[in-house]
Amino acid sequence: MPKNVLIIEDDEFLRGLINKKLTAEGFNMISAIDGEEGIKKAKEEKPDLILLDLVLPNVDGFEVLSKIKEDPVSSSIPVIILSNLSQKEDIDKGVKLGAVDYIIKAQFTPEEIVDKVKAILK
Amino acid sequence: MFRALKIIYNIIAVVLINVFLIFLTVINFWLFANGEAKLIYIIIVIFSIVIFFTGSFFIIKINGLKREKTALVRLLEKNEEKLKISEIEKNIISEVFFNIGEGILVIGGNGKILMINPKAKKILGIKEKDIKGLPVIDLARLPDIQPIAPYLLSQNIVFRKEIKLKYFIAELSVMPIFFDSSHDDYKKDVNFQPEKNMGKLIILRDITRESSLEKIKNDFILSAVHQLKTSVASVKWSVKMFLSGDFGKISKEQKDVAKRLYERNDALIFLIDNLLDAAKIEDGAFFYKKTLIDVQDIVESAIIFFQDKIKGKEIKVKFEKPLQRLPKIIVDKEKIRSVIQNLFDNALKYTNVCGSINVFLKSDQNSIKFQIKDSGIGIPMEQQSKIFNKFFRAANANNIETNGSGLGLFIAKKIIEDHGGSIWFESEESKGSAFFFTLPIEMVE
Fold first, then answer.
1. Distance (Å) from the C-alpha of residue A13 to the closest C-alpha of chain B?
2. What are phi and psi of A37, to 5 degrees?
3. B60 by DSSP, 3-state: which?
4. Given a cut of 80, is residue B9 above it in pLDDT?
5. Which molecular-function annotations from GO does this UniProt entry contain (chain B) (predicted)?
6. Residue B326: CA atoms inside 13 Å, Cβ hemisphere, count?
7. Which of B48, B330, B361, B437 has its CA 20 to 30 A from that of B158?
């Protein structure tokens, strides 16, 4: 059974790259293009892992994260934050809200992201 | 002058009258002298002499009194003038006090409010018309001014502390104020009680507008940086995937170009981070989040980070680890990482192909010392003093590598010094450079 990974990312290009990379690694990818859709899909599809961008239209990533963690249906799903907000406060806030890891986009390669996903789902 | 002449004139007049009288007496005496008349004449002479002296005496006395009177009048006039000036000064100061842009509150030695200007009332949200004489402790109880209350009550000096109130953001300064300007003389007096003569001057500057502008500016920068980073991240990812063959096999030439593109993009990411840091330093908004870390981990991860570049230039990198694990220190991990990466990036940039880089890490009782020594182009002697300046790049550095912002060492120096350490270098042109920094080991339980 392939593992399901939900990616909540508004940038189509980045989302496409990650989708391609993780699909090639045997993951089943689910996409959401904004916060609202992300929360909805997290609850409906119950993915094995969520990759979450922080700067999103309408509902931002921090709010998405707290909504996911509030609901018992989705609270146990591990969430990796995928963002370019590299300020310490943002990282701390994300971790405090229950994220398992924090990836700063410009500092990681797709391979490293795959490694992190695999390590968490092992 | 006139007065003196008048006195002399009076004296001369009296003398002349007397001389004339004496003259008459003497003439009479000699012409008509007989027993009885002689006595009368003698009496007249004596009488004249007495009049002469007493007259002179009184004239002098009266003139003296007159003089004193005019001096007194003048003194009074002068005082009145001074009073007028001080009244004007008082009015000016009071106008300034009422209309100045800063809120001013003066508290007396007895802890009661002596003066408060309308701006201070506005900032503090005080609606009562007259609060003069109110104990400051009562003022501190008002709910709206709670954030400021501790500063109103303590004796500490405060300098430009930003405080958020209900409707205003204020910059608060508190300083002692001596009501007797000659307090230095008072200090010599054994009975001098400084606390009675000392109150507090509280200045509140309304910076609501400034901080909102600051926020708009910072939000704008953050949003622009975020967009820039999203773009460079997508380039990083896609090029990396090209290189990894995710989009099919690529030729050697394609691979070489993609590699160069990847490196250029990483340099851009580095530059964006540096520019953002420099902007924050300028703004005084460069903050640290310190945690307990092992510097060795950071050095090792930096070497891994630059692995591609190291291999690309075939540079021999040697890391001389400390004999035993160094004590962990409390620093901002990301900032120290940025210092080490900047130093490493410079060493790589300015060392020729097949050169060498040696990294040392050691510690003594008080500090951890990092050293990175390269066999690169070095820094020309005459430019060494400017090397930590913002935007400065040595001429020979510009010649071999046009990319570079001149920000790396400026930021590194700021970070190391803010951590209580020091940073320096030794360099000889064409031979190489060695950069050092120390970080204090703080005792941790």
1. 7
2. -65, -35
3. helix
4. no
5. ATP binding; phosphoprotein phosphatase activity; phosphorelay sensor kinase activity
6. 29
7. B330
The domain limits of chain A are 4-117
Please state the pTM of the whole predicted model: 0.56
Q: Which of A13, A85, A89 sits opposite B234 (nearest CB)?
A: A13
DSSP collapsed to 3 states, B72-111: HHHHHHHHHHHHHHHHHHHHHHHHHHHHCCCEEEEECCCC
A86/B230 Cβ within 8 A: no
Distance separating alpha carbons of residues B76 and B90, to the nearest angstrom: 20
Residue of A nearest to B288 (CA): A88
pLDDT at B190: 54
Fold of B288-438: Heat Shock Protein 90 (3.30.565)
For residues B215-235, give the mean pLDDT.
84
| Residue in A11, A85, A109 closest to B236 by CB | A109
Q: What are the two backbone dihedrals, phi and then psi, of residue B100, each rounded to the nearest 5 degrees?
A: -65, 150
Q: Hey, which bits of B207-315 come out as E strands?
A: 291-293
Phi, psi values for residue B72, rounded to 5°: -65, -45
Phi, psi of B284, deg, nearest 5: 70, 20
What is the interface pTM, i.e. ipTM, of the complex? 0.84
Tell me if chain A has a CB within 8 Å of the CB of B233: yes
Task: Count CB pairs under 8 A between chains A and B.
Answer: 53
State residue B81's pLDDT score.
92
- Round to whole Å and give the CA distance between B427 and B374: 10
In B315-374, the residues whose Cβ lies within 8 Å of chain A are 332, 334
DSSP per-residue string spanning chain A: -PPEEEEE-S-HHHHHHHHHHHHHTTPEEEEESSHHHHHHHHHHH--SEEEE-SS-SSS-HHHHHHHHHHSTTTTTS-EEEEES---HHHHHHHHHTT-SEEEEGGG--HHHHHHHHHHHH-
Which among A14, A21, A105 has the least Cβ separation from residue B246? A21
β-strands A49-52, B198-206 pairing: unpaired
Q: Give the closest residue to B319 by CA, choosing from B243, B372, B366, B378.
A: B372
Of A18, A105, A109, the CB nearest to B229: A105
Cα(B329)–Cα(B292) distance, integer angstroms = 5
Q: What is the least distance, in Å, from the CA of A69 to any CA of chain B?
A: 26
The predicted pLDDT at position B182 comes to 53
| Position B214 pLDDT exceeds 50 | yes
Angle between helices B408-418 and B333-349 (to 10 degrees): 140
CA atoms of B271 and B387, how far apart (whole Å): 18
Which residues, in sequence order, are CB contacts of B390 under 8 Å at separation 6+?
Answer: B278, B406, B407, B410
Contacts of A111 in chain B (CB under 8 A): 240, 244
One-letter amino acid identity for B400?
Answer: I
Contact A102, A74 (CB under 8 A): no
Average pLDDT over residues B255-274: 87
CB atoms within 10 A of CB B158: 18
Average pLDDT, chain B: 85
Q: Are A34 and A43 in contact (CB under 8 A)?
A: no
- Fold exhibited by the domain B97-177+194-206: Beta-Lactamase (3.30.450)
Please give the single-letter amino acid code of residue B122: K
